[in-house]
Specification:
The protein has about 90 residues and is an all-alpha fold. It has 3 helices and no strands.
Length: about 90
C-alpha cells in the first residue's frame, strides 16, 4: 500500500516535470526538465524492482542512470559551446 502511494506521487511529479520540459522558456529549463523526468522514471524502475523482487531491473536502472548522466553532460557541453565534450 505504501509503495503504491509512492508510485502515484512519483507519476504526478513526473507529470509536473514534463510541464517544465514543454513550457520551458529557454534551453536550460528544458534540460533541467529532462533531467527531472529521467530521475523520476529511474526511481519508478527501482521501486518496481523492489516490488517484483527482480534484480535485473536494478541493472536496467543503473544503465539508465549512466546513459542519462552522459546525455545530460553532452547536451550541456553542446549548449555552452565547448568544442570537446566530456
Amino acid at each position: 500500500m505504501f509503495l503504491n502511494i509512492i508510485i502515484i506521487l512519483l507519476m504526478i511529479a513526473s507529470a509536473f516535470s514534463s510541464l517544465v520540459v514543454l513550457k520551458g522558456k529557454n534551453k536550460w529549463e528544458w534540460l533541467l526538465g529532462c533531467s527531472l523526468v529521467s530521475a523520476k522514471i529511474n526511481m519508478l524502475i527501482i521501486i518496481y524492482a523492489f516490488i517484483s523482487n527482480k534484480t535485473f531491473y536494478l541493472d536496467i536502472a543503473l544503465v539508465y542512470v549512466i546513459l542519462s548522466y552522459i546525455g545530460i553532460t553532452v547536451l550541456a557541453d553542446y549548449m555552452v559551446g565547448r568544442k570537446k565534450a566530456c
